Amino acid sequence: MEEKLKKVEKLLEQALAEIQRLRAELAGRKTPPASELLKLKLIAELLKRGGEVSKEELHEIWKKMGKDPRGLGGFFKGKNPIMVETAKGTVSLTKEALRIAHEYKDYMKGYGIEFEEVNGHA
Known about the structure:
The chain contains five helices and three strands; from the N terminus they run H-H-E-H-E-E-H-H.
């Protein structure tokens, strides 16, 4: 029963994310492609926690998103990784993650992330 509930919660979460994306699109705001929604949610969850978390906390966030922690490796690799391991052993968002979050700042509002404007720029 618990597993069935988790599957339904995951489907609802995906549907809500798509509704949020479509509302932003209808309002004429820049919307992320569906393939980027999971990455944006992960960025938002880390931003809510100050942009830096322990590895254990990152794994818990990812599990709550219905994912296996072994799948996190791709976010640390490639030309533009969104996370790095710090000298303290924590995980921190990169400038690329912040760039992505700013690019879709209207969409990120749906996750409770607001960017302050400085000299007319967010």
